[in-house]
């Protein structure tokens, strides 16, 4: 039997609540970083739901690269007009086709991603029309066959590749709860 290489180490320092200073960065709901991160997350959720509904599992994808290019608007007290649209670019890897016993199935990933981002914009920003004020683009490629084979193995527990790593912590501090 192979010896486990998992290491759990306690952090040897004062808990946050007992420290004199705590710094927390919070970007508001309209901040470009928040918008693009949320757009990428919505796109990933939409793909995941499609994969589960159609193939019984979440297939390999990572839509973790995004770019938001601000538009241009004229504003005045009580209103404004969007003169140039916001550009949102979602990039990454995704399973875009699947081989099944009955043939190859094309995943409508472009529509899934665009619809998810439009829904996010519509539900988050009351004066932005995702059809008129936002241009959504994507650069999505299939991951390597070797990587897809590791991640998409259906006969075992879900796996992550070597670039997927999770860190957990709890509970949130008082300040984190305040700004979250």
Tell me about this structure.
The chain has 180 residues and is of the alpha+beta class. The chain has a domain at 29-149: GMP Synthetase, Chain A, domain 3 (2-Layer Sandwich), CATH 3.30.300.10. Helices cover 29% and strands 25% of the residues. It has a 3-stranded mixed sheet, with helices on one face. Strand 5 (97-100) and strand 6 form a beta hairpin. Helix 1 (32-55) packs across helix 2 (109-124). The N and C termini lie far apart (44 Å). The mean pLDDT is 88.
CATH class wording of the domain at 29-149: Alpha Beta
How would you describe the shape?
flat
Second rung of CATH, namely the architecture of the domain at 29-149: 2-Layer Sandwich
What is the number of helices?
4
Biggest sheet architecture: 3 strands, mixed
Q: Look at the helices and sheets and give the structural class.
A: alpha+beta
How far apart the termini lie comes to: 44 Å
What is the residue-mean pLDDT, rounded to a whole number? 88
How many strands in all? 7
**Poorly predicted tracts of residues:** none
The largest sheet has its strands arranged as: 1-4-7
Gyration radius, to the nearest Å?
A: 21 Å
Q: Could you please say which CATH topology of the domain at 29-149 applies here?
A: GMP Synthetase, Chain A, domain 3
Percent range of helical residues: 25-40%
Order of helices and strands: HEEEEEEHEHH
What fraction strand? 25-35%
């Amino acid at each position: 039997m192979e010896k486990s290489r998992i290491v759990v180490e306690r952090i040897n320092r004062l808990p946050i609540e007992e420290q004199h200073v705590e710094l927390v960065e919070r970007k508001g709901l309209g901040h470009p970083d928040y918008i693009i991160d949320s757009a990428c997350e919505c796109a990933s959720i939409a793909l995941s739901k499609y994969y589960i509904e159609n193939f019984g599992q979440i297939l390999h994808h990572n839509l973790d690269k995004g770019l938001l290019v601000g538009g241009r608007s004229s504003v005045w007290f009580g209103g404004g007009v969007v003169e140039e649209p916001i550009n949102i670019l979602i990039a990454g890897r995704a399973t875009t086709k699947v081989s099944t016993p009955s043939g190859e199935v094309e995943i409508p990933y472009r529509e899934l991603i665009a619809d998810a981002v439009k829904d996010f914009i519509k539900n988050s920003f009351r004066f932005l029309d995702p059809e008129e004020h936002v241009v959504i683009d994507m650069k999505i490629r299939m991951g390597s066959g070797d990587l897809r084979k590791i991640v998409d193995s259906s006969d075992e527990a879900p796996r992550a590749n070597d670039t997927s790593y999770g860190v957990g912590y709890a509970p949130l501090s008082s300040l984190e709860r305040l700004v979250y």
